[in-house]
Amino acid sequence: MNATPLRTLVLFNYDWDRLGFGRWQSEFPNDHAGFDLFSFPSNARLPGFDLTRFVDRLARKAAGAGWQAVTSNQEQFGALAAALMAERMGWPGTPVDAVLACQHKLHARRVLQQVAPEANTDFELMASRYGEPVPDDIAYPVFVKPVKAAFSVLARTVRSRAELDALVHFGAWELWVIRRLVEPFERIALARLPEAGSAHRMLLERPAHGLQYNLDGYVYDGELRPLGIVHSEMYPGTQCFRRFVYPCGLPEAARTTAIDVARRFLATVGFDHGLFNMEFFYDADHDKLTVIEFNPRMASQFSDLYLRVDGIDLHRIALELAHGRDPALLPHAAPTAGVAASFVYRSFDPAARPAMPAPAQQAEMERQFPDAMLFCFPKSTGQIARDFKWLSSYRYGILHLGGRDPAELAERCAAASTILGWPSPCARHDAAIDGSGLPQLSLETPT
User: Fold this and answer.
1) Long-range CB contacts (< 8 A, 24+ apart) of 83-91?
2) Quick one: which of 17, 25, 97, 246 could link to 305 by a disulfide (CB 3.0–4.6 Å)?
3) CATH code (residue 376)
């Protein structure tokens, strides 16, 4: 325990981060700034939001508030805002230009082509801009995604010109939202990384093959230190996440390759401090690793999984890094599970409105599964319609559980789902089993 609590500014602190940083509130008291993109009236701050003005206001308050460090794991605005704030105050942090290089997906592909072409896929900038007709010379199928986005918005494989046209045909309201989500990043990127070009565009990629994974780690004093690899599994026949499982059965040689690719890329973009997450495919049949993208922050949804299985808390690591201290010196907690997963409940019917669990159901969940972590996402009809346009499904719940082994984990998930009144995302009959005994699905493209 520190003799003097270390006061930390946490930006865009919601969901997993609110719980994760809350675990350390006594030792690392924190203040929060930012807003929730997914709830009203918090997200009413989106119009006119400017990262430079946001950081300016916080910098003026820092001394009086007693802040000594800043951190954030939010992809849309938080990671970049934290980097800007750390730079302004002279605090430890991920370099601004490194965050920009990771988040500008076209620029990241160009860098990857220079330093690890064997882990890249064919890519090009879509010639048309938002609102313009789709070009006629695109070869299908093709994976399309925004140059700057988060939460897998508008990212999917399309198999025809008509399908692509429907995806990028935006109404006035959609264009308004998209531009305000991207513009804060755009203003900083054009000033600090002008060679990357505008982020108000769509990127085309050749679909990759294999199973999807996440390499989590951090860089301290320029040294990359891997933490683990999480498997991302999709609902059968879709590009929508069903569950994230840790640990996983990725072959050791592929792990070594993933770490090597991450080390080369991050060193090239100047990423010398902070947590990172690298999403990638591994095609075992061809021993082929393909990078999906680099996230210049913790994948906070996975922090709880590592804590259950390995006894390491990614949120504590984030706090140590924010204060310039070496996370390798942290003790490990006692593991509580042999395997853990984040289960995602989704509806693929736009007309369906899954019922949220009543207080009695939630109380029963807490009684039978005191280790569970549950998030519910009720949405309006309009919000559900937007989710189907942007994400091709509606996510209405997430449940974290641990188990001694995959079999017990599946049983616990099924029992918990029954209490919630939701269909279990842990059906075993449609999953192949890899060398570790963990369920996996074969798929072709990321979300």
Assistant:
1) 83/296, 84/51, 84/52, 84/55, 84/188, 85/9, 85/11, 85/55, 85/58, 85/59, 86/322, 88/55, 88/59, 89/59, 89/62, 91/322, 91/324
2) 246
3) 3.30.470.20
Question: CA 69 to CA 62: how far, in whole Å?
Answer: 9
* Bridge-based pairing state of the strands 8-11 and 30-33: parallel
- What is d(CA 300, CA 20) in angstroms, rounded to the nearest whole number? 8
Tokens 């930390």 correspond to 8
Domain extent for 307: 211-440
Among 189, 205, 221, give the residue marking a domain's end: 205
pLDDT in tens, 76-122: 999 999 999 999 999 999 999 999 999 999 999 999 999 999 999 99
Dihedral (CA of 359, 360, 363, 365) sign: negative
Among 205, 223, 254, residue at a domain's last position = 205
